[in-house]
Each structure stands twice: as C-alpha cells, then as structure tokens.
C-alpha cells in the first residue's frame, strides 16, 4: 500500500481549503489534509473528539435538567433542615487541584513528544495523584453532607451530577495509570502516542465539565 496516498475528499464543503487557515491547536482534533493514509494519529484524535462531543451532550442534558428544576422549584428546592452543598474549603481545594492538573498533564504530553520519557513519567504521575486526591476529597465531602440521594430534588440532582463526573475522573485516572505502565515497555511510544494524547484530551474535558458543575452546584445559591 502506498502510504502517501491521499483519499479524495468528496465533501461539498471545501474543508481542505479551510484547513490551512485553522489555528494549530484546532488542527490536532481534525483529520489532516483530506485524510492521509499515514495520518492514523490525526484521524484517531478526530474520532475521539467526536466521542467527547457525545459525552458532552449527556452532561448538557443533566445540566439543563438541573437548571430547569431549580428555576421551577425556587421556593422549595431545599427540604426543611437541609442546607444543601456548601462552598467549603475542601470543595475549593479540590477544585483548584483538579483544574491545576490540566496544567500538569499537558506538559507531560509535550515532554513525551520530545522524547523526554522521565519527565513525562513524573508529570504524568503527578496528574494521577491530583486526580486521586480529587476523588478522595469528593468522597469526604459526600460523607459530611446533610442529605442523601433520596433527599428530594437537591439530593438526586447533586449526586447524579457529581457522581457521573466522578466516574469520568476515575476513568481518566485509570487511563493515566495504564499509559504510565505502558511507558515502561521498551519502545512503546516510538511509533506514536495516541493513547497519551487521547487521555490528555479526555482530562481537559473532565476539567471543563467541572467548571460548569462547580458554578451550578456551589456558586448558584439563589
């Protein structure tokens, strides 16, 4: 097979012409130049981006449902004796740790691109620790709340939103551990590092989702 073959782009939209004007950060999420046969990384990242878009639709459905319920139950959102989720020091620290991890995992991926394997491992391990810290902190927060999943709308929506997000954080940590283990295989990343790029992208997605959830659950006290 000729590795230099370019598949013909039959789309009525001149994507090939517009591609050259896109910023570099966006190009990494799109099939490169009509889908070159050798560009497995670019096409795989594009497919993974589509997967994250589908995940974002699920989160958006939860978020819009939460907003609709809050707006229609302003007077009786919290049952008697329930204070609801509070913006505690623990929540703030957890949020800072999770969001800061995006500024650690990206340099880790960049280090791998430049074949700095030891630097990649240490930064990657730091990201794993930060994600684990967030999960433990969230578990501690849950244990201190004065409401449970069955406590009206506030309980069901809070635990579904944070639980679903926490499941994604856990998945991200597992993926990171897997990529770290693979880095100890001789020459594992010599032919590419799609797994690391996809995990990094997934982690950024998890952090962005938390910004919205944090704003809704802790900052919106109306």
Structural commentary:
The structure is a single chain. The chain has helices spanning 15-19, 24-27, 40-72, 89-113, 117-144, 152-182, 194-219. With 222 residues, it is an all-alpha fold. The chain has a domain at 78-219: Four Helix Bundle (Hemerythrin (Met), subunit A), CATH 1.20.120. Helix 3 (40-72) packs parallel to helix 7 (194-219) and helix 6 (152-182) runs antiparallel to helix 7.
Features:
68% helix; 7 helices; 222 residues; disordered N terminus; mainly alpha; Four Helix Bundle (Hemerythrin (Met), subunit A)
Helix and strand arrangement:
Blueprint: H1 15-19, H2 24-27, H3 40-72, H4 89-113, H5 117-144, H6 152-182, H7 194-219
Helix pairs in contact: 3-6, 3-7, 4-5, 4-7, 5-6, 6-7
Summarize the structure.
One of its GO terms (biological process) is aerobic electron transport chain. The protein is mainly α and 222 residues long.
Spans where pLDDT lies below 50 across 5 or more residues: 1-12, 32-38
CATH architecture name of the domain at 78-219: Up-down Bundle
Strand content: under 5%
> What fraction, in percent, of the residue positions are helical?
55-70%
Q: Enumerate how many helices there are, as a single number.
A: 7
Using the coordinates above, name the CATH class of the domain at 78-219: Mainly Alpha
Number of strands: 0
Fourth-level CATH superfamily of the domain at 78-219: Cytochrome c oxidase, subunit III, four-helix bundle
């Amino acid at each position: 097979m000729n590795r230099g073959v370019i598949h013909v782009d039959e789309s009525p939209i001149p994507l090939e012409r517009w591609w050259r004007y896109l910023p570099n950060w966006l190009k990494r999420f799109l099939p490169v130049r009509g889908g070159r046969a050798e560009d497995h990384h670019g096409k795989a990242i594009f497919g993974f981006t589509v997967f994250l878009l589908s995940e974002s639709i699920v989160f958006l459905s939860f978020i819009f449902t939460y907003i609709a319920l809050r707006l229609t139950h302003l007077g009786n959102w919290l049952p008697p004796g329930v204070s609801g989720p509070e913006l505690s020091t623990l929540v703030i620290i957890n949020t800072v740790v999770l969001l800061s991890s995006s500024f650690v995992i990206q340099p880790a991926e960049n280090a791998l691109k430049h074949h700095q394997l030891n630097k990649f491992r240490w930064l990657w391990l730091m990201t794993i620790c930060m994600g684990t810290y967030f999960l433990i902190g969230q578990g501690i927060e849950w244990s201190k709340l004065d409401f449970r999943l069955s406590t009206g709308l506030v309980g069901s929506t809070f635990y579904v939103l944070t639980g679903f997000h926490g499941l994604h954080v856990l998945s991200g940590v597992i993926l990171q551990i897997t990529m770290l283990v693979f880095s100890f295989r001789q020459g594992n990343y010599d032919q590419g590092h799609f797994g690391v790029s996809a995990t990094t992208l997934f982690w950024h997605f998890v952090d962005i989702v938390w910004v919205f959830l944090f704003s809704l659950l802790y900052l919106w006290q109306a």
